[in-house]
Design brief:
The complex is a heterotrimer of chains A (373), B (590) and C (299).
Chain A (H helix, E strand, L loop, with lengths): L1 H19 L2 E8 L5 H23 L5 E8 L4 H15 L3 E4 L3 H14 L3 E3 L19 E3 L4 H15 L3 E6 L2 H16 L6 E5 L7 H10 L3 E5 L3 H11 L4 E4 L6 H7 L1 H4 L3 E4 L6 H14 L6 H21 L3 H9 L29 E6 L2 E4 L2
Parallel strand pairs in A: 1-2, 1-3, 3-4, 4-5, 6-7, 6-8, 8-9, 9-10
Antiparallel strand pairs in A: 10-11, 11-12
Chain B lengths: L3 H16 L3 H26 L7 H18 L4 H25 L2 H21 L1 H4 L5 E2 L12 H24 L2 H11 L1 H6 L4 H27 L1 E2 L6 H14 L6 H17 L5 H15 L3 H10 L38 E10 L2 E11 L4 E5 L6 H9 L6 E6 L2 E2 L5 H7 L1 E3 L12 H6 L8 H10 L2 H16 L15 H14 L4 E5 L7 H16 L3 E5 L3 H7 L2 E6 L2 E6 L1 H6 L1 H6 L7
Parallel strand pairs in B: 5-10, 5-11, 8-9, 9-10
Antiparallel strand pairs in B: 1-2, 3-4, 3-6, 6-7, 11-12
Chain C lengths: L2 H32 L6 H17 L4 H28 L10 H21 L17 E4 L2 E4 H22 L2 H11 L1 H6 L4 H26 L7 H15 L4 H21 L6 H13 L14
Antiparallel strand pairs in C: 1-2
Helix pairs in contact in C: 1-5, 1-6, 1-8, 1-9, 1-10, 2-3, 2-4, 2-8, 2-9, 3-4, 3-8, 5-6, 6-8, 9-10, 9-11
Classes of the chains: A alpha/beta (373), B alpha/beta (590), C mainly alpha (299).
């Protein structure tokens, strides 16, 4: 009889274990074709997702994860349609993505309505999660850089060190948004930009803009245009060498290859990944090994990596039920991030991986990006 | 039952959301309907009137922002913003349509490209109004206040709009509007001579295509509650073009089919993003190379074999019945008077340094057959072109029925009763023989009343068709009614052109080389027909080389040489004139 | 506006304008022989830029790299004609035949774009300079500074114009092209090998695209979708210049480049709008371009 009882207990434990092992679907919508600026970010974030998933699978996990990836081509109509497909047709338990903040704004309400968690990224618009945070519960989370934090830290530093600050921005969605944030920030700090120049995303030459910047006498140029190298290429022609500060894109190795160490020296950018940190360095090495020279944006990939790992951690605890996943996400603790994400990234009133204090400034020194002191 | 297909479609639309497995398919159907509406307009523009627009996204944007901005930023209700959308696109379409009158083919493509690009840039940069690339957020959705069933209501709304647009499209294609557009596309100058105001039609068609695009944009804006300027780039215009061509350019249901294919293709390539351009590029190449008539064409090839009436060349037109007023269409007869029906005074026309017609004056008396002869290059065809209005004379006047028509546009002259045939046969290759003849019957209701009438009965079309058949019977080619001109031998095509000319109810008929290329039997038949017309009071001016024909048939002959009139009078008199003989008749048997 | 700035703008405008001119000429030459343009010509330029970049970065000497790139593109050009243009001639005169070449050449261009994406990736790339050892070699003239590259691009474009002009209007081959352009059937009856003339014209288009790609790469960013704006501007330039005379295209191209540079200087927010707006207005005023002829449609 004892044997029988042991057998019964064993069987029920086995059954309970087996019942918990589910086939869970995660959907990803990313910008994977179209303008390089979009694709670079989309692909990098996805690479981070994929590495995280690979490592998760290697630990013989409880659940089998099916990762469905769709390309939204940075097109909002497409994005909405694809999220619809993920919700109704593929029946995913969670969605992660995309690059265009506008696309996220378009489909976030759908996911909130459908009660399916969204891990947004690498979209940068300020209020992606703020719009939904008062809903109880909010299903919208984000693991990405928030533009406002980057702009704030840059402006805080800039107005202290320089008297004449100018802005060069792209006229695509990101550029216009960043320009708006910067102008608001400058006004809040009581300073005026001495020049505001813009250029189309696919511009071929920035000589006119650089001439105008030089004529304005700007000592610091805030650079928020996708084609970073065009600015540097036009500057020697105008015999003009201001300090350049821009977004996280300026930290890429590719920029170093294109612009050259000398021209890049002293350029400042927003950062959430300190490669001096051991964990980050190890992550960097892993990514290079996995993706070779297709790996381009460490900070974006790091956020994708962390975002996916948080999601997988929550899935581990909650299974495939979206409502449970949402709770698990909010109560995530003990998370060892590679980016600046804290150990407890979320709370009932905070669905952002990164908060203002996790964003810092980096600077190019001697061919490397280090933290700006 | 008339229009059964639309009732079936309406039922299908009503039922679809209820049987759809999940909202994703409803969303897809919405997308397809939105694309189809725009595609139908582009199909009419490009397929029927032959004008290429690569900037339809611009009109889409106008429709989307017109409604989006007013409803989001100013709180207008959607039933009020819709007319604004349509009006905005219509005005823009009208402007481009007017420009299209001056710029043709490649230049028009460039103009529309530039237009689309400019609209895209403006919507991207005017962030204050349009929200730019980041987008206009919170656009009211067309869901009649019920978010849960909103997708279904939206689908019903957009599909109903599509059904209406499709019905109007079908009417256009099956009526004189479609025929006229085909004519304008293939030969604008010919179209003018049957009374079609080509300029007005061309611009109107642009307006139509713009309005459908604007309507499409309206629905687009209110579908997801979000409008971004990224949606209105060149790739959007190209996608619409692809939908039209893949479906089958110029066909009635091509746009709908193409829209469905396009939407499905997009969904298919969403997961295949590494090779999506290979897929699209490959499809473009394959479709254009192997299925140029698109999906509709492929389906037609599969299911139908066109019955080509191939008349044997041994066919001799049987002795035709004597024309009576019952078998011949009532021709507007000029009131017999002494005043000339047509009077040219010192008309001169030269181009590129060559004086084709030099100070020619002539009078044509009503109810007569008046021939114009002369050696090659004498200016005969130029003269006819000047009289019909395709050329403007450098100097001189032309009077018709006492009225000065020198500056009158060709289509207005046609409407006055001046009808002509062409030396190089202007038959529209994409229309059947009967349809070509019906081109002459340029009368009927204007669009909206015509459409409403068509919904209820096809009496108008049947009447036109019957008239055309009667005319074909008069020329003994009734059995060729459904053949294409390209399949027929030259002689029969000539008869078709004559039938078309008669359909125009001519007061005065210009025949440019009416028996050139015909055999003797056919020529005799034509002669009899012309005599029959004369008996009914139609005045005929004919240009011919064949002397015996001219001499036997005409009442008056005018002789031209090197653009100048060198002789005129009754045939017998002219035949003996030494000047004429020297210039012309000397080498021919009189 | 400072005069030094003006000179600077003129030079960079002329440099980019020269590239547009080369594009326009490529479009002209194929139009003359086949009444069709290569809507994927921008993608041809893109492939040339990528290829030349890879070869130069690998240390291949400039002359050899140029020859290789030109050869590859000629193959592509002749292949395009064979695959995407010639089969269309035998199509029945249906509604789609008059614009089929737009879609086939566009489709061909898409294949090139996808290939570039797979081979080189989707990012932006930088091409090393051809004529100056280091990128930072700046020349000074009249108070304005510019790269040697820009000057050479402008000079080269004008050389190509002269050569093409001579070809079209003086050389025998040019006469053959004009004959084919006027009427294919007649030309063939006169003993002209129409197929060879057509294939050669596409080869020349490819050479022009190759040259413009090699020159454009170092001036601008190289990426898989860079072709779109080049074909748009090239098309605008050939429409403004007229589909007749290379000189008209030169004027139009340089003009476009200069207007582009100056409007970006004056107002960079809407700077890229004005060249197209002006092009649009020009075409409305003069519908067949600077040197084109208006033919009345009369039978």
């Amino acid at each position: 009889m004892k044997l029988h009882r042991i057998g019964l207990i064993a069987a029920s434990m086995l059954a309970a274990f087996a019942a918990h092992a589910e086939n869970i679907k995660i959907g990803a919508v990313q910008g994977l074709s179209g303008p390089p600026a979009i694709v670079d970010f989309g692909e990098s974030y996805l690479q981070g997702n994929q590495l995280a998933l690979k490592e998760y699978n290697a630990t013989s996990p409880k659940h089998k994860i099916e990762f469905i990836v769709y390309n939204d081509e940075a097109n909002p109509q497409r994005a909405v349609s694809l999220v619809q497909r993920l919700i109704s047709n593929d029946k995913v338990s969670a969605v992660i993505g995309t690059v265009n903040s506008g696309n996220v704004a378009a489909f976030a309400p759908m996911l909130q309505q459908a009660k399916i968690p969204l891990m947004a990224g690498p979209a940068i618009a300020t209020d992606i999660t703020a719009k939904f945070i008062d809903q109880n519960p909010s299903y919208i989370f984000r693991c990405s850089m928030v533009e406002k934090f980057q702009v704030d830290s840059m402006l805080d530093w800039g107005v202290k060190k320089f008297k004449k600050i100018a802005l060069l921005h792209g006229t695509g969605g990101y550029g216009m948004f960043a320009a708006g944030e910067i102008q608001k920030g400058m006004k809040a700090r009581g300073m005026e930009l001495v020049a505001v120049e813009s250029a189309a995303p696919n511009v071929t030459d920035m000589t006119p803009q650089v001439l105008n910047l030089k004529n304005s006498g700007a000592e610091l140029v805030l650079m928020f245009h996708d084609s970073l190298e065009l600015l540097y290429r036009a500057m020697p022609k105008a015999n003009y060498k201001p300090v350049v500060a821009g977004n996280w894109g300026l930290s890429s190795q590719m920029v170093l290859n294109i612009v050259g160490q000398e021209a890049l020296e002293g350029t400042v950018m927003g950062q959430a990944l300190d490669l001096g940190d051991a964990k980050a360095a190890a992550f960097n090495a892993k990514m290079s090994k996995e993706f070779g020279d297709k790996y381009r944006w460490p900070v974006v990939a790091a956020l994708g990596y962390d975002g996916m790992r948080i999601l997988l951690q929550a899935l581990d605890r909650a299974g495939g039920d979206p409502a449970k996943i949402q709770k698990a996400l909010e109560t995530t603790t003990g998370f060892k991030a590679v980016s600046g994400t804290p150990e407890k990234p979320f709370g009932p009133k905070d669905h952002e991986c990164l908060d203002a204090e996790n964003v810092f400034l980096g600077v190019w020194k001697g061919g490397r990006v280090v933290k700006l002191r | 039952m008339r229009h059964l297909r639309y009732l079936v479609a309406a039922v299908a639309i009503a039922v679809f959301p209820l049987v759809s497995p999940n909202p994703y398919f409803i969303n897809l159907a919405q997308d397809a309907a939105i694309v189809a509406i725009g595609a139908i307009g582009l199909n009419i523009l490009l397929g029927l009137s032959g004008q290429l627009s690569l900037g339809q996204a611009g009109f889409l944007a106008l429709g989307a922002y017109g409604s989006g901005v007013l409803s989001t930023n100013h709180g207008w209700p959607l039933w009020a913003t819709l007319p604004v959308s349509l009006l905005l696109s219509a005005v823009a379409g009208g402007v481009i349509g007017l420009v299209a009158l001056r710029t043709r083919t490649h230049y028009l493509a460039m103009v529309t490209l530039a237009f689309g690009y400019i609209v895209e840039i403006l919507s991207q940069r005017w962030v204050g109004i349009t929200g730019g690339s980041m987008g206009l957020i919170g656009v009211p959705q067309l869901n009649f206040g019920d978010f849960g069933n909103g997708a279904t209501y939206f689908f019903w709304a957009v599909a109903a709009a599509l059904l209406l647009v499709q019905m109007m499209n079908d009417y256009v294609m099956r009526s004189r509007f479609g025929r006229s557009l085909h004519a304008i596309k293939e030969s604008e100058s010919f179209a003018l001579t049957v009374g079609i105001d080509a300029a007005r039609w061309r611009s109107l068609v642009f307006v139509v295509s713009a309005v459908t695009a604007g309507l499409s944009g309206f629905f687009f804006a209110h579908q997801a509650g979000y409008v971004s300027s990224d949606a209105f780039g060149l790739d959007r215009s190209i996608a619409l073009l692809i939908a039209v061509v893949i479906g089958g350019l110029g066909s009635a249901y091509g746009p709908l089919l193409g829209a469905v294919i396009l939407v499905m293709l997009n969904q298919l390539t969403a997961g295949l993003y590494e090779v999506s351009f290979y897929i699209f590029g490959g499809i473009l190449l394959v479709v254009m190379l192997f299925f140029p008539a698109g999906a509709v064409g492929a389906v037609q090839r599969l299911f139908r074999r066109r019955s080509s009436a191939v008349p044997s060349s041994a066919d001799v037109p049987a002795k035709s019945a004597q024309p009576t007023s019952a078998t011949v269409p009532a021709a507007a007869s000029a009131s017999p008077s002494d005043a000339p029906i047509l009077e040219l005074h010192e008309v001169t026309k030269s181009y590129s340094g060559v004086v084709a017609v030099s100070a020619v004056s002539l009078k044509v008396m009503p109810g007569t057959v008046h021939a114009v002869i002369g050696p090659n290059g004498a200016g005969k065809s130029t003269l006819i072109n000047v009289i019909s209005g395709l050329y403007q004379p450098d100097s001189g006047t032309i009077r018709f029925l006492g009225r000065d028509i020198t500056r009158l546009k060709p289509h207005r002259r046609a409407n006055l009763g001046l009808t002509r045939t062409f030396q190089n046969l202007q038959l529209i290759g994409t229309l059947t023989v009967a349809e070509n003849v019906m081109l002459g019957l340029q009368r009927g209701r204007s669009f909206v009343p015509g459409w409403l009438h068509w919904l209820v009965s096809d009496s108008e079309e049947r009447a036109d068709r019957a008239e055309a058949t009667r005319l074909l019977r008069y020329f003994n080619i009734e059995r060729l009614a459904d053949s294409l001109p390209g399949d027929l031998p030259y002689g029969h095509r000539k008869l078709c052109e004559l039938a078309r000319a008669l359909a125009q109810n001519p007061t005065m008929l210009f025949l440019d080389e009416p028996i050139a290329g015909l055999n003797e039997g056919e020529a005799l038949d034509i002669m009899a027909k012309i005599r029959g017309l004369k008996a009914l009071g139609v005045t005929v001016l004919l240009v011919e080389h064949n002397m015996s024909f001219v001499m036997e048939l005409s009442d008056t002959v005018t002789v031209l040489d090197y653009g100048r009139k060198i002789g005129e009078g009754a045939p017998a008199v002219v035949k003996r004139d030494p000047v004429v003989i020297a210039a012309y008749l000397g080498t021919e048997d009189a | 506006m400072k005069s030094a700035d003006l000179v600077q703008l003129l030079i960079s405008g002329i440099a980019m304008g020269s590239i547009y001119t080369l594009m326009g000429k490529g479009l002209l030459i194929t139009f003359l022989t086949t009444r069709a343009l290569n809507f994927g010509q921008g993608d041809f330029l893109m492939i040339a830029s990528f290829l030349s970049m890879t070869l130069l970065l690998a240390g291949v000497p400039v002359i050899v790299a140029v020859l290789i790139v030109v050869a590859v593109l000629v193959v592509l050009g002749v292949g395009l004609e064979r695959l995407a243009i010639r089969p269309l001639a035998s199509m029945t005169a249906g509604s789609a035949s008059s614009l089929a070449w737009i879609l086939t050449t566009m489709g061909f261009g898409m294949l090139l774009q996808n290939t570039a994406q797979l081979v080189w990736g989707k990012s932006r790339f930088y091409s090393p300079p051809l004529f100056s050892a280091k990128q930072k070699e700046v020349v000074e003239m009249m108070g304005a500074r510019f790269y040697l590259e820009e000057l050479i691009v402008a000079v080269l474009a004008m050389v190509v114009v002269a050569v093409l002009y001579w070809f079209l209007f003086r050389a025998r081959w040019g006469k053959e092209v004009q004959a084919v352009s006027f009427d294919k059937a007649t030309a063939s009856l006169l003993g002209i090998d129409v197929r060879r003339v057509v294939a050669t014209s596409y080869a020349i288009m490819a050479v022009l695209a190759a040259v413009s790609g090699i020159l454009a790469g170092p001036l601008t960013t190289v990426q898989a979708h860079m072709g779109l704006l080049f074909i748009l501007k090239g098309f605008a330039v050939v429409c403004i210049g007229g589909f007749v005379n290379p000189v008209g295209i030169l004027i139009a191209g340089l003009g476009f480049g200069i207007v582009e540079a100056v409007s970006n200087y004056i107002n960079s927010a809407f700077g890229d709008l004005y060249p197209f707006l002006i092009a649009l207005l020009f075409l409305i005023a003069r519908p067949s371009g600077l040197f084109g002829e208006m033919k009345t449609d009369v039978r």
